[in-house]
Design brief:
This protein has four helices and no strands.
Amino acid sequence: MRLPCVIAAIRHLNRLETIGETMRSTLNQIATMAPKWLQEIAPPEWYDRYGARIEETKLPQKVQEKEAWIAAVAADGHFLLNSIYESVAQFKLWSSNGVSSASLW
């Protein structure tokens, strides 16, 4: 493998980790501010997907699996943002640092 290919692979892995870690970190921030609300809206698969730091998990290796994982994280982010929009009681979440990273989605 040539050096540019290695660099491209590392860059891609870094992007996957950044996307997943952004969602995990946001969920952790919300969990400290509104734990009951988060438990009510969080699907069970989020506990598996975001329970551990992303770099400590095994990310998908195949192209189709990577695309499916990215799509799942993006859908999770949109679901979370929509849930916050719909919940007037959780308005304070928008002023937190954890949700200010929403522009990544």
